[in-house]
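Weekly modeling sync, notes
Attendees: AB, CL, MP (scribe)

Item 1: holo prediction request
CL wants a bound-state model with zinc ion before deciding which constructs to order. AB pointed out that an apo prediction alone won't tell us much about the pocket. Agreed to run with the ligand included and paste results into these notes for async review.

Input as submitted:
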Amino acid sequence: MNTARIRRGFPQTWVPWIAAGILLSGCARMPSRGMEALPTSLSEICKANSVSLQFDSVTQVVTLNKNNVTAKVLVGSDVVLIDSEKILLSGPVRRMKEGLFVPPDFGRKVMERFGARDDFAIKKFREIVIDPGHGGKDPGARGRSGLDEKIVVLDIAKRLKRSLEDKGINVIMTRNSDEFLSLKQRTEIACRSKADLFISIHANSSRAKNAEGFEVYFLRELDSKEKKNDELKDNQRIKFRNLAMSRSAPAVENIVWDMMYSYKQGESRRLAEYLMLRTPNSLDAANRGSKSCAFFVLRNTLIPAILVEVGFVSNVKEERLLKTGTYRERIANSLAKHILDYANKD
Ligand SMILES: [Zn+2]
């Protein structure tokens, strides 16, 4: 499905790159430019650093791999994605008759990452947006003895924030108090940030009195119409402005968006599955599994995103637990521990 979109957008991409290629190959042959101005051959720099290189001629995406670090480079674009991080080069990666060429800062900004895995320990997620559900006029679910979801989830979110910050992660909260925030505002906060992960915290409710347990949602595969909804397009514009991609052609944005989307999808699912194998056990809570869905906040964030349902306020036993600071602290610590374990695995 993605490939079809890329193919349709592709011919437009060629025009500026062919022009740039002609210009650049002209420049590269001018003797007065000096050695520093010459672009570096990507295959040579990869060979020298034992980094594997794969080029997909349909999508024009180059995948570089070493030590479990993956970089995605798009021919014609100055953005490189390394795991969840976007790196801006001083110029675009270009395809010429002799092969692919990268700007001079490629070595310092990209290649060094492959050799220095240790420096990036606990770095898969460096900044996390925590989104306590509901708030203000929207109480969320209400427990049988009157416990409001908006209150419990805000408290758990604050504890999770402390726990993550203790481990060196930057945290952004969508709300810090009992205030109302639209779903759109929540996703915009994520898009304006440099965060690598979005976690929405909720508590469940059911008419079935004995429904109980912990579950995590991740985004299901969206169809092409869903991928083009207005909110998502708005957030995409915010994100691309953040990435300083305003110089890029719309077709390039589409391809970068496809790359970000497939990264987001895979990473959200893997993290949800990882958490479900560990967190419910550590809380002695029932395991309701990881589930895919198309909730607004998952659909309209451009980074990996999960929604955690910490338990049922409609279940007498779980409501009693959720009222206690001890249990909220255990949820927060367990989530923080397993998110960071996930970030550090491999
Ligand atoms: Zn909720």
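Recorded for review: Residues 37 and 286 are 61 Å apart (CA to CA).
Action items: CL to compare against the apo run; MP to circulate these notes.
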